[in-house]
Amino acid sequence: METNSETTSTGAHAPYTRTLGRSGIEVSALGFGCWAIGGPWQGPDGNPLGWGKVDDEESVRAVRRALDLGVTFFDTADVYGTGHSERVLGRALGGRRADVVVATKWGNLFDEERKVMTGGDDSPAYVRRALTASLARLGTDYVDLYQLHLSDADPERAALLRTACEDLVREGLIRAYAWSTDDPKRAAVFAAGPHCAAVQHRCNILQDAPEMLAFCEESDLASINRSPLAMGLLTGKYTPGSSHASGDIRSAPPAWLPGFAAGRGADPQWLVRVEAVRSVLTSRGRTLAQGALAWLWARSPRTVPIPGFRSVTQAEENAGALHFGPLAEEELAEIKRVLAT
Asked: What is the dihedral of CA 116, 120, 126, 130, to 10 degrees?
């Protein structure tokens, strides 16, 4: 990872940067995930899919503080808060849109008024409709990285979506595209397109993704890491029995969200693993969260973790990881040894 010694208007040094695969688009090595600032919303079954109540003004302040600290990559989705996350992000960026790289996603259907996700649509015709709506909510005329949000979409259908994305690139509506999926075989379908730039996938110390990281390396793609802090488990704020308020997805976790149990909070076995690596991650003055982000940077030169946030304090802590950089090789090896036992 290379550094940039240029000084920002706030006096802070510009952060480490990454390039989004073959696109040439440069971003800060740390992105900010905007799922949480979308506020409460539900799935078709009535269970929460958001992170609980949010203060929109605090969200705006947090985005702008992240910008001041050198974060230039923001990842959202049309379905987060059923459109609310995109609206808040667009307002927060305001006149600084040209200074950042914006990623959003499509594929899910939702009722914005009722705050309910209602299904999915993997048709090529829907891509353009979804993008048009996202552009309006974000207050922009282009998206830097447009991502398919249906992780298990049919590969043959996805090939048609890849073609649709290439059309959008030619029209200048998007600069590049990606698939949010944990399946390298599905990711390969999009990777066959010349303007595919990344794969968004789950990766953190507790849930490594060696096959996907290898695929990104082989395919010259960026690895955008969702759940880099294991949905909060790697922040250090959890103890056995910790609970979540209603409206938080972790209070009634779906099957794809391990590490939590309905009504029982964080899984004690996962917390034991967190404690096992705490001393290594918090060495050299890092917080636990900053150490977890540093592990991802050390894990691969293609990783761009996108931790969530809901406050200025969280934004400052996450952005602070940029000034420490990646773990040293011996620290990475020590974590591997500890977790293996």
From this structure: 40
Q: How many CB atoms lie within 10 A of CB 44?
A: 12
Tens of pLDDT, residue by residue over 228-280, are 999 999 998 887 777 777 788 988 888 888 888 776 788 889 999 999 999 99
Its CATH architecture, for the domain 17-236+295-326, is Alpha-Beta Barrel (3.20)
Whether 275 contacts 308, CB under 8 Å: no
Instruction: Give me the residue spans of the domains in the chain.
Output: 17-236+295-326
Residue 184: what residue type?
P
* Matching residue, tokens 């990646």: 326
> In Å, how far are 31, 195, 317 from 28, measured between CA atoms?
7, 20, 15
Helices 268-281 and 288-299, packing angle to 10 deg: 80
Question: What are 42's two structure tokens?
Answer: 């539900």
Is the CB of residue 16 less than 8 Å from the CB of residue 29? yes
Cα 62 to Cα 32, 36, 69, 167, distances in angstroms: 10, 12, 11, 35
Q: How far apart are CA 172 and CA 234, in angstroms?
A: 39
Burial of 229 (0-12, 13-18, 19+ CB in 10 A): buried
Which residue's structure tokens are 């309910």? 116
11 — alpha (psi -120 to 50), left (phi > 0) or beta? left
The predicted model scores a pTM of 0.94
Query: What six digits make up the tokens of 148?
Result: 């398919």
Sign (positive or negative) of CA dihedral 276, 280, 285, 289: negative
- Collapsing DSSP to helix, strand or coil, 102 comes out as strand
Mean per-residue pLDDT, 210-218: 98
- CB-based burial, 69-107: b 16+ in 10 Å, e otherwise: bbbbbbbbbbbbbbbbbbbbbbebbeeeeeebbbbbbbb
Would you tell me how many other CB atoms lie within 10 Å of the CB of residue 10? 10
Backbone phi and psi for residue 80, each to the nearest 5 degrees, phi listed first: -65, 115
